[in-house]
Amino acid sequence: MKAFIRTQPKTAEDIKSSKDCMIRSVTLATGSTYQDVHRIMYGHGWRASSRNSKDWEKHITNTLEDLGFKWKRVSFPGVKGQSRMTAKTMTHEGTWILRSAKHVAAFKEGNLLDTWDCSDKCIYFAWLIWQE
Q: Three-state DSSP class for 100?
């Protein structure tokens, strides 16, 4: 990881929720507006009050597709005797949406983009995203 960049894509008019990391990560990774991503993800069933949605992964991938992005899910499984990957240790190029314990964040060209420094959280899997 090159750097952590504290970034807040929301404006004063946007929803007042701290449980919107999925919207923030897609917004920061794609360069779309927070309002557009929120509208699309809401249409796919995302709700700030829904804590245990089984469909959260589909909310992200369907939104990416609606925004014209392709994606590939990449798993980072734990290996016995080795530390799990974190954003601090990630060296992958490109634009990623990282899934860690109870959180989702954007990772773009080696920089972690989020409202707080989650660079020490273990990454379980991520989506590499691109436009053709």
A: strand
Pairing relation of β-strands 3-6 and 70-75?
Answer: unpaired
Q: Given CA atoms 39, 42, 48, 52 in this order, what sign does their dihedral have?
A: negative
CB 99 within 8 A of CB 123: yes
Residue range 3-130, CATH number: 3.90.70
Alpha carbons 9 and 23: distance in angstroms, whole number = 9
Please report where in the chains the tokens 């309002």 appear, as a residue.
35
Angle among Cα 22, 79, 113 to the nearest 5 degrees reads 25
Over residues 93-130, the pLDDT tens digits come to: 999 999 998 899 999 999 999 999 999 999 999 999 99
pTM score, whole prediction: 0.89
